[in-house]
Amino acid sequence: MRDWRERGTGLTFGKDRQRVNSLERMIVILDLFEGDRLEWTMEELQAQLGYTRSTLYRYLKVLTDAGLLTSLPDVGYTLGPRIAELDYQMRERDPLITASRPVMAELVEEIAGISLLCRRYRERVLCVHQEQGTASFHSNYERGRARPLLQGAASRIILAHMPSAALRKLYDANPTAVHEAGLGDSLNAFRARLRLLRQAGWDATVSQVTRGVTGVAAPIFDRRDNVLGSLSVTIGDEHVSKERLAFVADRVVLCARIVTKTIARSGHSLPATPERAGRREDITPLLAGAARQEGST
User: Fold this and answer.
1) CA atoms within a 13 Å half-sphere pointing along the CA-CB vector of 108
2) Exposed, middle or buried by CB within 10 Å (0-12, 13-18, 19+), for 110?
3) Would you kindly state where each structural domain of the chain is located, as residue ranges?
4) Domain 14-79 has what CATH class?
5) What architecture does CATH give domain 85-296?
6) How far is it, in rounded angstroms, from Cα 230 to Cα 260?
């Protein structure tokens, strides 16, 4: 008897395959509520997706019962309150966010700027947390806003640590975009450019996401050395001296290492209580302590 899942392919068979396909088709509905389009009528969804009316109704009922979508008179379907609830839970209890929050808060106290915590999401990078240490400028890379992998230091340093097969797939899909991003005009050049970023341990870009600013980012890894995301700081100056840039990069790399070690050591996050999140005076001097620890090893 043939196994329900063919190893290494993700293919499914029989009823299991039908079930997976139904789940995937339902998720496609949620994918439509991205970008500028957040309201869809039943008729518009049916025309866009090509599902039968009975199938679409069944999927929408499941999604609305779960609170992921909601139906409003004279408007149609839009995102439901469960999305906001899940966002709150993520902000308060996500292990990566709670491990990074105090480090990022100290970073922007030392370096006036905006610190971002980012994770890869499909072929984009998503900002999942932000700490602001200046009011002199505003970052376009806000929490929940996705960017392509090729734009900005926070994205590119994640890209540099992606598997070789994923890089080939990305390049083959759009070599022009890779070239325009200054990352090479061939697959070999693309890989060579990313190899330099990996060896440096950090990346810096100027005015790629927000005009007039410099972004510096370093990678965060899990305990198996898979890249989880990036920690970065954005400075409101596009003319940063080499000495200043080297100092900022050193601090950002140190912060990313602290988060990596915190995750690897405990397997869980720091406590994510609202009291701790709102009281900077309770945060221990992580940067100074970590710097002493790095110097003694």
Assistant:
1) 23
2) middle
3) 14-79, 85-296
4) mainly alpha
5) 2-Layer Sandwich (3.30)
6) 10
Six-digit token pair at 71?
């139906």
Question: What backbone torsions phi and psi does residue 5 show, to the nearest 5 degrees?
Answer: -125, 125
> Whose structure tokens read 């598997």?
163
Q: What's this model's pTM, rounded to 2 decimal places?
A: 0.78
Question: What tens-digit pLDDT sequence spans the chain (297 residues)?
Answer: 333 233 333 333 344 445 548 888 899 999 999 877 899 999 999 999 999 999 999 999 999 999 999 999 889 999 999 999 999 999 999 999 999 999 999 999 999 999 999 998 877 899 999 999 888 887 777 788 887 789 899 999 999 999 999 999 999 999 999 999 999 999 999 999 999 999 999 999 998 888 889 999 999 999 889 999 999 999 998 889 999 999 999 999 999 999 999 988 865 433 333 333 333 333 344 555 444 444 444
Of 215, 222, 218, 95, the residue nearest 158 (C-alpha): 218
Which tokens hold the place of 173?
């899909």
Q: How far apart are CA 17 and CA 158, in angstroms?
A: 33
Give the three-state DSSP class for 73: coil
Q: In what order do the strands lie in the sheet with 114-121?
A: 146-148, 124-132, 114-121, 227-235, 214-221, 203-206
C-beta of residue 232 within 8 angstroms of C-beta of residue 115? yes
And the tokens for 179?
């070239």
Using CA atoms, how far apart are residues 1 and 227, in angstroms rounded to an integer?
Answer: 38
Residue 243: how many CA atoms within 13 Å on its side-chain side?
Answer: 0
Q: Tell me the two tokens of residue 164.
A: 């070789």
Alpha helix locations (H) across the chain?
14-31, 42-49, 53-65, 81-93, 95-110, 153-159, 164-173, 175-180, 187-200, 242-266, 274-278, 286-296
Q: Where are the alpha helices (DSSP H) in 111-241?
A: 153-159, 164-173, 175-180, 187-200
Residue 277: the pLDDT is 36
